[in-house]
From TrEMBL:
Organism: Mycobacterium florentinum
Span of the signal peptide: none
Pfam families, alphabetized: PEP-utilizers
GO molecular-function term, one example from the UniProt record: transferase activity, transferring phosphorus-containing groups
UniProt domain PEP-utilising enzyme mobile: residue ranges: 455-525
Coiled-coil ranges per UniProt: none
InterPro entries recorded: PEP-util_enz_mobile_dom (IPR008279), PEP_Utilizing_Enz (IPR051549), Phosphohistidine_dom_sf (IPR036637)
The protein, known as: PEP-utilising enzyme mobile domain-containing protein
Organism phylogeny: Bacteria, Bacillati, Actinomycetota, Actinomycetes, Mycobacteriales
Length: 535
């Protein structure tokens, strides 16, 4: 299925390994050509820039190769994938870890055919660059956030009257903003946020005291969204005010063709209505306040369990973690706002091209590439429309396929099977434990948070999650997700909310169905089916 006109499939080299874990939640499902070509260059460049910023890559390795198997980020059969040799290089060159440990943290275990080459030759460079990045990039994320927010609020209204050239200019500018915010987010995540989460996890495990979610601080962007929706359910905010603040969120918000709340507020209106019927005892405002109040006592208890000489350094670590880790959601919100401006601009471009007869419909614009929009299309409308038809058909073909969690070379896709109802009552799904705790409850399988209600006490089972899911996650008793790692969206939110969480089950949404009684062990990473629901 390799064709020059199809940007959604690039064969891999036989010696390279690839995975959809974790990166798959950024761009879930099958990307559109426009969505992929925005993420493609920027995602690969971000990986190279952050590797250089922390000292792992030299200048030659930072240079970006053309699209193909030498990229760190590419796509197979329409699904985004990451070359695991990159993660191995980061682990093998960083002090205190290895490539095998780095990959196991993402995949659960390293592929047996992976080769590792640990080295200390980059240690002097890392010793200089990593602390600088860890100190400066979180500040940059903080500074960028209000700038990007003001820009997002200002650019969207301009597009209503923009001509074709103006819409293309705004689209081009938005892709540059997307690159800027993605890179800042990525460097902050790798240099500061992830090491801090790992350090907290090690402290809690060593002392047996504390909770990583509470120690990670509060006030993140996603909790702010949940709190605003809750306030709206109590009459404190209007729907329009919620959309004005959070309208760049929505189902599949990482895909540029999706319709976010700014364009269709009905999903968030339904959540507000659902929250209005929820008892005040479930208030996320109260939960967030309780976590803030628990933090100082938990920090003190943990410090008291350590030898006196270690306490000053750990105290600095704890305070820094509580300030810095919540920035994970802040940086993500910024690049989603940049993507949303690109989305709005692309829709305006599509309107102009459809009115000119170049495209058959407005939304055909999402089957063009970035270069085709910015650089220009064929003047023959039949050529353009035929290209769109072929790409639509190919994308539909890809939607029938699934890939393994990792592979070598080019994967062998399989046709997505139907839901499996033949599972024994004592079946156990294995995944990665990402939020401690054990809970039993009925399953609620959700593919679209906009159309499915989750009742308090139910176990949310999803293919993946993004910030738009947070509004239903907080009423769930536990989270079970098909793809992801301990640093994926579901895992981070689960720790913030204090929920058991198992990610990377791969088949949870197929093997389980609504009403099944399950036992989720977030520490062991298992989901045990205890009783099948009656149909």
């Amino acid at each position: 299925m390799t064709d020059a006109w199809d940007p959604l499939h690039q064969p891999g080299r036989d010696e390279t390994h690839w995975s959809t874990v974790n990166v798959g939640e950024a761009l879930p499902g099958i990307a559109t050509p426009l969505g992929w070509t925005i993420w493609s260059d920027i995602g690969d460049r971000m990986c190279r820039d952050l590797s250089y910023a922390i000292g792992v890559f030299d200048a030659a390795e930072r240079r970006q190769p053309p699209p193909g198997p030498d990229r760190i980020i590419t796509t197979f059969f329409g699904r985004i994938a990451m070359r695991t040799e990159w993660l191995a290089a980061v682990g093998d060159r960083m002090p205190g870890t290895t490539g095998e440990v780095a990959i196991a943290g993402m995949l659960g275990e390293a592929p047996p055919s992976m080769a590792f080459t640990p080295t200390m030759r980059r240690y002097p460079v890392i010793a200089h660059r990593l602390p600088y990045a860890a100190l400066t990039m979180p500040r940059r994320v903080r500074r960028l956030a209000p700038q990007i927010d003001a820009w997002w609020r200002g650019e969207i209204p301009k597009l209503a009257d923009a001509d074709l050239a103006g819409a293309i200019a705004i689209f081009d500018g938005a892709t540059h903003r997307f690159s800027e915010t993605m890179t800042a987010h990525g460097i902050a995540l790798f240099s500061a946020i992830t090491p801090l989460i790992n350090a907290l996890t090690a402290l809690v495990q060593r002392t047996g005291i504390g909770d990583v979610g509470v120690l990670s601080g509060s006030g993140g962007a996603e909790m702010a969204m949940i709190e605003d929706i809750w306030r709206a359910s109590r009459g404190g905010l209007t729907l329009n005010e919620v959309v004005a603040n959070h309208g760049f969120h929505g189902p599949l918000e990482g895909e540029i063709s999706s319709r976010v709340w700014r364009e269709d507020p009905s999903p968030v209106a339904a959540v507000i209505e659902r929250y209005a019927a929820t008892d005040e005892s479930a208030s996320p405002l109260a939960r967030e306040q309780a976590a803030r109040e628990r933090l100082p006592a938990m920090q003190s208890e943990l410090l008291a369990a350590l030898p006196a000489p270690a306490r000053p350094g750990v105290r600095l670590l704890l305070n820094h973690a509580a300030r810095t880790i919540p920035l994970r959601g802040v940086g993500k919100a910024s690049f989603l706002q940049a993507l949303d401006v690109a989305r709005a601009a692309a829709r305006r471009v599509g309107e102009h091209l459809a009115m000119a007869g170049i495209l058959a419909a407005d939304d055909d614009v999402f089957y063009l590439t970035v270069d085709e929009i910015v650089g220009g299309l064929s003047s023959d409308k039949r050529v353009v429309q035929d290209l769109v038809v072929r790409r639509r058909e190919r994308r539909t073909d890809y939607q029938r396929l699934e890939l393994p969690s990792w592979w070598r070379g080019t994967p062998q896709p399989t046709v997505i099977p139907e839901a499996d109802d033949s599972v024994d009552d004592d079946f156990v799904l294995d995944g990665i434990g990402a939020g401690s705790g054990v809970v039993e409850g009925p399953v609620r399988v959700v593919h679209d948070p906009a159309v499915v209600e989750v009742e308090p006490g139910e176990i949310l089972v999803a293919p993946t999650t993004d910030p738009s899911w947070a509004s239903i996650m907080f009423v769930s008793a536990a989270l079970v997700v098909d793809i992801g790692s301990v640093l994926s969206h579901a895992a981070v939110v689960a720790r913030e909310l204090g929920l058991p969480c198992v990610v990377n089950t791969r088949t949870g949404t197929r093997m389980l169905r609504d009403g099944d009684l399950v036992r989720v062990d977030g520490g062991a990473g298992t989901v045990q089916l205890m009783k099948r629901a009656q149909r």
